[in-house]
Input
Amino acid sequence: MKLHDVLRDSRLMLGTAQYPSPRVLSDAIAASGCGVVTVSLRREIAGEPGANGFWPLIKATGARILPNTAGCHSVQEAVTTARMAREVFGTDWIKLEVIGNADTLQPDPFALVEAARILCAEGFAVFPYTTEDLIVAERLLEAGCRVLMPWGAPIGSGRGLRHADALAALRGHLPDVPLIIDAGIGAPSHAALAMEMGYDAVLVNTAVARAGDPVAMARAFRHAVEAGRLAHEAGLMPPRDFAVPSTPVLGIADLRPGARA
Amino acid sequence: MITVLGAGVAGLCAATVLVERGMPVQVLDSGRAGDGASWLAGGMLARFVEAESAPPEVARLGAGAVDWWAARVPGVVRRGTLVVAPARDMAELERFAARTIGHARIGADRIAALEPDLAGRFACALHYAEEAHLDPRVALQALADRLQERGAVIRYGAPPVGGRVEVDCRGIAARDILPGLRAVRGEMLLLRCPEVTLTRPVRLLHPRFPVYLVPRGDGLYMVGATMIETDATGPITLRSATELMSAVFAIHPGFAEAAVVEMGSGLRPAWPDNQPRVTRAGGRLHLNGLYRHGFLTAPALAGQLADLLVRSSHQEPADAH
Output
């Protein structure tokens, strides 16, 4: 299946970590209507991946698997993890994370471009987790990426779109490249805003997994993403600095004494 | 004679309740004493704290656990639980407080009064005064001794019996007849650190490396535990050990001098909803899927299991006619 078709069906992607239980996770996936879920090979499913019974539960949801290289700090680690993920999950899709700082989990753009070049040459469909930096984005596209995943804010921070102007500029510069907001989405309103700005999809994990009721929150994100996308397609009004009366004038009130109400 | 398979916390609790109801019991375990998941448990009887992420049923099942254990084994310590967070993760503490009941929010002075060694380290904590903890190894041994005093037979390394098995408490090994069961790997440390004195379990909320520390007395501390969706056995990984160690160092830097007495890993059995329960399959009753809540929920589940067993044994003659 092509990414284009996947995005047409669902513009919400879910991460699968940190849920209270696999049952809650699969219920949340169903409630979100999401078509793609990310799975971390390194950490959550070590050893014989998923043979413990977790993997069949994810597969049963019917969502497409996007393995990631979460927690990798070097080109070598990320490339090795991607190759393992291809074997284990039987997909060429890989969400490429090369972390540059252990505290902020922000991507190392230099290592990211290098790893992307290697993996694209090996036939992977690379989804790079990057910043909103336009030049890095261009380098990733030159390396062979067909889609980009800029962050909204640091992973797990829930701060929304911290550099909305830069993200809008990125969208404007790359009108034909699928762009997916990857990290930092903390509330459905953040997701709706990203979609209104014309982003193609959002990926959410912590905001759903650690909600009081993850299944209800998954439904909330589904509606927010749909609303934001519809608004983008419908065309948003431009903001103005002054008021414009919006009540239609149907006649003039007759205020003479004795006039009919 | 009722045959119970498995001598972990599930099997020994089930056997205890059956013996107390006057039934003769034998417990068979294919392994050695102390090589199951129960041996590596934290032993926190923390029904309020666990409710943060566990299904609500776990807290209900755990309501009588502290009294149940205290009436049967030594070493049940009723000093509550402390939940703390690093200064920059106070939002985690707020979230935890909003998700749980049974706690008081306490400040630095009260923290220092409860645990003098934590003085000045945390500005705010949640104190769950009604919770307790025990040492799983002491408790399991005491339960086994108590069963044998009451005439029950416990055999380790026992070959599979030819006779009928009524009760199956084998944990993850029971996957052969319980296909829905999954393994969640847990890794733990046992530290000796006489330099630091803590008297109640302390849980550190950390977005990436949540950790709890349970005092075992005599300067021993159990530190746990990772949760990894895998059935890989084998020793603890360096990554997990590093995470547990750095988190415990964040609770008190005095742990830098601790001796690492033991590093362990085991497989917890869990159902897809992570809720422990009694089920019937393969002609047996199963007490399984205890996940992270074995010592908290096993007594109540053992009671449910005994009720079901009594009911079905009453029905058997009727079924035969």
